[in-house]
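agent> call fold_tool(seq_1)
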Amino acid sequence: MVKFTIFVVLLLILPLASMADLTVGFYGTSCPKAEAIVRQVVQKRFNGDKSITGGLLRMHFHDCFVHGCDASILIDSKKGNQSEKDAGANGTVRGFEIIDEAKKALEKACPSTVSCADIITLATRDAVDLAGGPKYSVPTGRRDGLVSNPSDVNLPGPGSTVSQALRIFTLKGMFLNEMVTLLGAHTVGFAHCSFFRNRLGGADTTMDPTLDSNLVKLCGTQSKPSKKDLRTFLDQNTSMVFDNQFYKQILNKKGVLFIDQQLALDSSSKGLVSSFAANRASFQQSFVNAIVKMGSIDVKVGNEGEIRRNCRVFNR
């Protein structure tokens, strides 16, 4: 049943992308070196910080699930005019300087041609590949949005149940298997103690006792928190590698976030978790399908939006 579902999703990807007027190699004529320039910037950062893969995946997800994949998450707030960056859910999003560096190089090579939204998508793809994940092509041609408001940010939180998270995914046209797949990106992510401290010290019996004890040493408990909001990897085993170890760990009650652990416990999702834990290739193929589809959510194309010259501000 799982294989059949993944096959159906494969069939749906190309129509979604083509309807949005996105195409692989969109900049082939207008900026032939665009993808190579982005890759070079990501490679440089990855060489010094392999955890950036998780950061870029999170940025891409947080961008696409608000106004679609339009780089609205990159806009800086101004006095009296807040942007999505001020939303609580985006407080720990990182990697903005990578997008800035790529944009600066692209503006020099091909002024006002490559969108910030496409830079996020390409940078995420490259980071996944560098971390040992699947190599895949992504259609480009997105344009940058003209709206960025913190009140519009509605994302599934770390304390969500499977059904609560799925409601938000469903609003964006995503299905359960795609949600379970995309949350598998936590195989290269980390979280601050404040996102899961309420589970520690025996407060949540679904957490492995040894993991609980180790995390208490780092984070404290809800009643006695650590002085600093430190962070830990969501995949406690192969933290820097994009693989399927995340699923194996949550099957063993080693999920750090509540939503992660619930994936292995909820009757609707635990079968998918078991399937991905047993078959890395299946997970990676499903991931390609899901992230390409996510990258096509409500994109701006043609004459919509703009091509920002600076990813942090709207063009004047």
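agent> call fold_tool(seq_2)
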Amino acid sequence: MAVGILLVGGLGTRLKPLTNESPKPMLPVAGLPVTEHQILAAKRAGIHTLVLATSYLAEVFTPYFGDGSKWGINIRYAVEKQPLGTGGAIRNAAQLLEGDEPIVIFNGDVLSRHSIADQIAFHQEKKADVTLHLIEVDDARAFGCVPTDSEGRVTAFLEKMENPVTKFINAGCYVFSPDVIKEIPLGSVVSVERETFPALIAQNRPVFGYKQAAYWLDVGTPAALFQGSRDLVAAPFLAMAGSTIGNDTQITGGTAIGANTTIASGCRIDDCIIGDNVVIESDVKLSQCFIAEGTHVNRGTEKARTYLSNSSDLPISL
């Protein structure tokens, strides 16, 4: 068994304008918020308690997730008054966890299908202080790379470089032993990537890389969010419970439609993300649009690569 911390306090600057009215972890992917996909993954891995480390628009999370009983998991909330960085956020949230179980850290804008349960087992087998999920990419220049030795022990935690020494990169899911988190100063701004991990490696502490080839995507940009939604839909479209679609409406391109949304007749909708409780009138044509929750789209509207809400009509760069 294990517990977890989900880092959902980021501003989502790269995702604007989609994050103008919603924190990035609550943006829908294949009909569910990114955070809900991560909670479901945590539950599958045997994690029984999960702390959401929030900051920006923190008040959005509690009404949706509550105490977690809907998902069969105990959810708690740690709110940062000021952003503390990844390490500071982890240390702050860990105060709400008890016991000596491994603590799994989830990055709030990553979709991954790797086996978290196997990563936890690897961590325990190696008696590691920290175990990082590593993935291999074709071109590691855009990422920090993480070389390991023959036993899987991390030998360096390197920033972006023109000639990476390995194709394995940090995939943003960590398993910590609780005592290591207690070493992070409470209330301080700390980056685990720039401070904690390099310091542990310099001290020759047992930091390991868990390598598994599995689906992984950082959904930190509009283009990546759309890709992640299409990947999970894997069909012409997906409509959540309570949604209705009118006659002679064609929906294609892996479009995701939220719950209790109404789409009238004669519409043509391709490669869109549509939130909950949206009303789309007849003869609307939308392509690569993000329609925010509760939006009303008037009859005959034609838009492409646009963020639509009841208060905004802004271009999306995809």
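agent> summarizing second result for user.
Helices lie at 34-44, 61-65, 85-94, 116-126, 178-182, 192-202, 222-233. Residues 235-315 form a domain with the UDP N-Acetylglucosamine Acyltransferase; domain 1 fold (CATH 2.160.10.10).
agent> awaiting next instruction.
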